[in-house]
Amino acid sequence: MSEQGRRQAIERMTGAGVDRPAVDTFAAHYDKLAGGATGLIAEADVSPAEPDVRLTDVHVGEEEARAALDRTVVITLNGGLGTSMGLAGPKSLLPVHEDLTFLDVTVRQVLALRAEHGVRLPLVLMDSFSTQGATLEVLARYPDLAVDDIPLDFLQSQEPKLRADDLTPVDWPADPRLEWCPPGHGDLYPSLLSSGILRRLLDGGYRYAFVSNVDNLGAVPDGRLAAWFAASGAGYAAEVCPRTEMDKKGGHLVRRLSDGRLVLRDTAQTAPEELVHFMDARKHPFVHTNNLWFDLERLAAMLEERGGVLELPLIRNEKTVDPTDKGSTPVVQIESAMGGAVELFDDAVSVGVTRERFVPVKTTNELLLLRSDVYDVDPGTYRLTRTVDPAPVVDLTKEHYGMIADFDARFPRGAPSLVRTDRLEVRGDWTFGREVTVHGTVVLGAEGGTVEDGAVLGEA
């Protein structure tokens, strides 16, 4: 049945106008999946990886930084809808600080850097079919954002979800859109090629790319890193930072024992019984930030040599066709991570950075921190500044706070003050009033209730 499934899936992709590099990449991954590949990386096959370089040891001159930034393009992943948080639109349009969204802050960070250094520094978003329209509407408010003839965005591709029982494309007449899924952000590379963006950047004199997720507002293009990467001659670099309790499920770099190469390992590539090792901060004290640097010329040569297909490590993602209905048809989504490209470069390196460069918002736990007084946004540079070190640990019960509508309803007057907090754990259905302050470690129980205006929780 797998041969029939392969043919049907490719026919669907071709009929939908998916570009050839993406189709060929899907086919290569499908063959591995049908052959029984799981994509799992065993703890016994790898060793922990320390950073090769630390940003605190990097010292470059202002002119070196300016020159490197002027040859750098910023690529931001913007394909997500935030469905895990109950969002129906682009996650990047979620307000995160006062009235500013992820997208607003990202754009303003880039514009501020251009003005500060006198560089081109184009910003290009990798959108999905679900995010492009709403995103471009917002970008129209920034008429100075475009640089030369570099487009503001390009589209990632799409692929069929596969039935878990026979790996044929799933049918879902109730909502045919749910028959499709993005192929993970590893699709960055073939989409850069097929969109023509890669060639346009090279023709425009750009040599380096800095890539990050739109929901990580700490990932500001950095002149020191740009200059260091340009001088290193490496084809690829990944930023890693110290792991915290809130990063337990974050991916990390390891070294494969068989060949010594750096490899990215994510939760989906870890067997359930080995998650205890995966999340052990003593064994793996650094988390992969998904802030990447790569040489555009090296990438173009690699793609040309391989017919547009980079066979990144397979990620087998088991879901249901309707993610909101756990009783709907079980499916497998073939995915890959852009960070998986680390093992394709002989000279790939990791660079250790501080936590300021990694402020991800994957759940409402992190969103509460970002909306609180734990973070400031500089009105001139739009850089995030953490006002307390270390950041508090926030653990909100998913039942009442996991969806953004529920979360907002329980913080109708804004986030509490958390700068004096060590840990806030909310186990029940609690609604917070205005100007609440949390001190030390506070656990609110399962009984639920209301935290009154001006309340001080914990020992002052």
Structural summary, described in words:
The protein has 460 residues and is of the alpha/beta class. It folds into two domains: 2-357, Spore Coat Polysaccharide Biosynthesis Protein SpsA, Chain A; 365-376 and 388-457, Hexapeptide repeat proteins (UDP N-Acetylglucosamine Acyltransferase, domain 1). Helix content is 26%, strand content 25%. It has 13 helices and 26 strands. It has helices spanning 2-15, 20-34, 62-70, 102-117, 132-139, 188-194, 197-203, 223-232, 275-278, 296-305, 364-371, 398-401, 404-410; strands at 46-48, 53-54, 72-78, 95-97, 100-101, 123-127, 153-155, 159-160, 162-163, 180-181, 208-213, 236-242, 252-256, 262-265, 286-295, 315-320, 330-335, 349-352, 375-377, 384-386, 393-396, 417-426, 430-432, 437-444, 449-451, 456-457. The strands form eight sheets. The protein has an eight-stranded mixed sheet with strand order 2-18-12-15-11-3-6-7, with helices on both faces. Helix 1 (2-15) packs antiparallel against helix 2 (20-34) and helix 3 (62-70) crosses helix 8. The longest helix is centred in the N-terminal third of the chain and has 16 residues, at 102-117. The chain is globular, with a radius of gyration of 22 Å. It starts with a helix and ends with a strand. The relative contact order is 0.15. The mean pLDDT is 94.
